[in-house]
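Side project, low priority. Logging it here so it doesn't get lost.
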Amino acid sequence: MIALFTVLAISFVLGSIPASLWVGQIFYKMDIRNFGSGNLGTTNAFRNLGWKAGVSVLVIDFMKGFAASYWVAMYAFEIGAGPIAPPGWEADAFLKITCGLFAVVGHMFPIFAKFKGGKGAATACGMLYGIEPISIGISSVVFILIVYATRYVSLASITASFIYPISLLVMRYGFGYYVDGSIIIFAILIASGIIYKHKSNIQRLINGTESRISFSKNKDKCEESPEKMTEAEV
């Protein structure tokens, strides 16, 4: 129990690192909470800090989830049974999921930012990659393609989340690849939660008022009209 409590606490603190807030404050002298949607996530970083900062935040948030579900979960054995793990030992699916989930919760409710964080898509993606990399790799490709084609980060996050549990089901029942049932159930739950957290983005996509990011070298920030900024801030 001590080992479990320790790795869960580490995972939560790791997830609480507000990458978009710190990147904005350190490199841009901006508090991203005062711009756009005010959300401490990848999408708002892309919109208001530019694509370079957005990519940096994306990588950091991804690694928070991956580190928790892969490395921190493995650390539980060293705490509970000593420094030497038996050959081939690997943390079970439950421990990986639990540690990863605490990192996602930490991202959504960070202790370093008054418990007001992001929506968790990038951190959840990293967490799921640490659990089962093939299917989340598929979702990552989908994410990149949609961002490149539409410049809507929110649409890419929603679609990639929707694809993830479907990929697991196809792998297990279509190709006979072993996937733990608990991972499939959790994937459905986490995908549903991420999509729900994007409900405001979905409404703006339907209304045609969702902001796009820009890849222009001469314009590092996203293209937003005053009307869109007003709605995002509301």
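Brief comment: Confidence is low (pLDDT under 50) at residues 217-234.
Revisit when time allows.
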